[in-house]
Amino acid sequence: SQTIHQWPATLVQPVGSPLSLECTVEGTSNPNLYWYRQAAGRGLQLLFYSVGIGQISSEVPQNLSASRPQDRQFILSSKKLLLSDSGFYLCAWSVSAVLQETQYFGPGTRLLVL
Amino acid sequence: AQSVTQLGSHVSVSEGALVLLRCNYSSSVPPYLFWYVQYPNQGLQLLLKYTTGATLVKGINGFEAEFKKSETSFHLTKPSAHMSDAAEYFCAVSDRSRAYGQNFVFGPGTRLSVLP
To answer: Over the Cα atoms of chain A, what is R_g?
Structure first.
């Protein structure tokens, strides 16, 4: 069966510090991968998605970037965090062979920028 | 463009009462429809989905939803609420006419409280 991992689970970082959040998927090959942000009391905002290694699409201009160095690894990064980057970050995957297939979510990383 | 609306950002029901969470969508083509549940500080868990076929879909934890094309709705129901149902619920629509990353749209969510 497929599983998706995210780490760390919780992170507290000072403003201006770098960020690296990691997401890995097991039990599937060539998944579509997604990064979402969920601000307090708000819905989900799609940040990035990837349909393959090295292929990243950004949905909104921002202080963050994403990379996919391996087939089942998706990394969210920032060179200098802003207060507004605080939130709950969710990684998700879907089957690439079927268009518009279900998205499955990881446990999330809660980021607090102080 | 597709969109999803969820009527009521917060719904409260008594334990044992009917749960009804509303979802309406707009889509240029027949969509795939989903309901997810999110417990505090956790990721989203798929409750149920509609793709094709039977319009009444049964999911986990006793939830079900009915796709009504004429009303462009996909409301989520459960006959009898349990305390453990307290969570945030998200409706989502997938538009098969759009490319990856642009096709999966979430509603704003409805927080369900269950009162003893």
So the answer is: 13
